[in-house]
Amino acid sequence: MNIFIGVRLPKEAKPYWTNQLQQFADRFNKEKIKEIQFGKQDIRGSESITLIDLKDCVPTQLRFTNKWDMLGFVQGYNEVQNTTTSRLNEFLI
């Protein structure tokens, strides 16, 4: 699965955040999702996580106020083993 990181990560913590984003992306079903994009994706200037399916469509896009909210969501999502309340679950393995 491809990931695109379109957000500037802090230099001293770049390996950590890159790993967190990769862990998040690895949780998705590769038979349904071919790419995940992190960063500024829309004209409103907010940060988002965008899923791209095999037909190059966007089935889900999560928007955040800033990159720290987005990174915090990813970090928290990685820490939770069995989440059942997420709209993203239909795309998980």
Number of helices: 2
Structural class: alpha+beta
Helicity, as a percent range: 25-40%
SSE run: EHEEEH
User: How much of the residues is beta strand, in percent?
Assistant: 25-35%
The rounded distance between the terminal residues' Cα atoms is: 13 Å
Give the number of DSSP strands. Answer: 4
Over all CA atoms, what is the radius of gyration?
Answer: 13 Å
From the spread of the alpha carbons, the general shape counts as globular
Biggest sheet, spatial arrangement of strands:
1-2-3-4
Mean pLDDT: 85
Draw up the topology in text.
Layout: E1 2-6, H1 14-26, E2 33-40, E3 47-53, E4 60-64, H2 67-79
Parallel strand pairs: 1-2
Antiparallel strand pairs: 2-3, 3-4
Helix pairs in contact: 1-2
Short structural description:
This protein is of the alpha+beta class and 93 residues long. It contains 2 helices and 4 strands.
Highlighted features:
alpha+beta; 93 residues; 4 strands
Characterise this structure.
With 93 residues, this protein is an alpha+beta fold. Helix content is 28%, strand content 27%. It has a 4-stranded mixed sheet. Helix 1 (14-26) crosses helix 2. The longest helix has 13 residues, at 14-26. The chain is globular and about 35 Å long.
